[in-house]
Amino acid sequence: MKTKRKLPSKVMLLFYTVIVLGITVLLVPALRKPIFSSLSSGKKKDMTYITDLATRGPFRLTVTERGQLDSLNNVTLTSKVKGYTTILSIVPEGTMVNEGDQVCELDSALLVDKEKQQQIQVTQADATLKQAELNVDIQKTQNESDNDAAELAWELAKLDLNKFLEGESKRDLNVKQGAITKSREDLQRAEENFEFSKRIAKKGYKNQNDVEADRITVVKAEIDLEIAKEDLKVEKDYVQKRKLKELQADVKEKERNMARVKNKGDATLTQFEAKLKASQLTYEVEKSELERMQKQIQACKMIAPQAGQVVYANQGSSRRGNGEDVIEEGTEVRERQSIIQLPDFSQMKVDARIHESKISLVKEQLSVDIRVDAFPSETYLGVVDQISSVPISSNWMRPDLKEYKATIKILPNGADITKLKPGLNAEIEIQIEERDNVLQVPVQSVLTIGDHRYIFVIPEDGIPVRKTIKIGQASDTMIEILDGIEAGEEVILNPRTHFADELIDLEEQLALDKKEQESKQAPGQAGRKSPSSRNPGKPSAKSGKQPAGKKKTTGGATGFMKRFDKNSDGKVSKEEAPAALKERFSTIDSNKDGFLNAGELSKLKPPSGGGRPSGAKRP
After folding, report:
1. What is the mean pLDDT of residues 362-383?
2. Is 525 left (phi over 0), alpha (psi -120 to 50) or beta?
3. Closest CA to 570 of 458, 448, 482, 486
4. Model's pTM, two decimal places?
5. Residue 329 neighbours by CB under 8 Å, 6+ apart
């Protein structure tokens, strides 16, 4: 019987190494290029460089973001019942319903009982309202009668006054004046009879008694005349004046009484009208409450406003052990809680968030390529439909993050979008611009230091060289090169890993140059020499080329950077800085990025002997 021979462990290790190396070469083009170029050219290069080539070709400027699918015409049915209620019945999730179909019924038993009680309140309020209306009508009629009676009494008082002034006063005076005239005539007649009696008594025709009687008659007539004169005086000076004042006072009193009756009636009417308004408001409130309860009862039956597929609006909640408010029969729901969503699957959209650095590029009606995670082999076409004008609420963990909501409308364009479901994750690629024959390199190969852009290239001799470049627009992966390198040059993708010290010195040099320019602009500083004149052997940082790896004479800032930069990332954080620098960290950090670079450290003045800055403790 044959037995299988086991391969030696060294052979197996070599076998697996070859496989891993092959996979790495196939999957990482950036690593494949330097390996093959080294083998073909026969020149020795640093295998730790990750490189790529500067190429000319189509340049697509795009914005790529993540988002979620949702229906463009999505209707959410929420509970409109006040407080809490219970789901009695609900159609199964995924059911296709038509417009007008009942999709959910909430418990309305308590509302029905309240409705009956409210109907009693409405009936009582209606009876009180009708009684108040009758009271107002009765008071209006009573006021009319009282006002008419008071006005009639006033008119009669005025007639009595006019009757006295124009009739009774003259009549009474004439009566008194007539009495005086009569008394005077009676006196004259008595005097004549008395004289006649005296004459004939002398002749003997009358006796003395007759003469005495005639004399008495004369005295009586004189008395009557005086009485008549006194009656006229009393009538004129007292009786008529008194009666005139009485009649005038009566007219005024009747006039005041008429106003008093009118005001009293108006006051009473106002009270009844106020009660009527209160009764009307009470009735309207009770009736409105009844109508609200009836609407609440109607709201317990949720009707689909459009055709669609039923999707339960399950929400996260800490009240449930499983972390969700499960929508099902028997679940208690609150007012305004979403219960059912009816998405229209024939019109779909993607809700995405655009970072503030890219929002200026995104415009409405731009074309969008959409790739749904659930269907990776298919690409859907869309268009930017809406862009919010203000940033949406940021994450509490990142309050400085500013993002704008964008709605991407998915176009049918022959694709089957009916299989898309709300909530699926998708990647959108907004097509900003596309140009041909553009020189471009990967974005990770370009370094930004101050206002300058640099790139490291590997020429034929294999020694990396730093070049100053000008860039144009940048996509998520590639950046346009306007000047500085040519197509076909090999660029290094990880320059900060290999040239950290040189970049620190470059940052320091640029900071010194900037400080020198500022000094030249200040009065009395024109005679100072530039750093390049002080170090004639050191090439300028603004020159187009400089061999990488050739060390420059470093100042105090470089020493500080090497000493404090514990993780060798080319900058000093507040945690890495010594205690003395931490106290002045915010002051030294001029660009407020939370780190100290070589330019900022160069502003520290070390002592004449070099070493650490004054006041700083040795780390």
Report:
1. 91
2. alpha
3. 448
4. 0.47
5. 87, 88, 89, 90
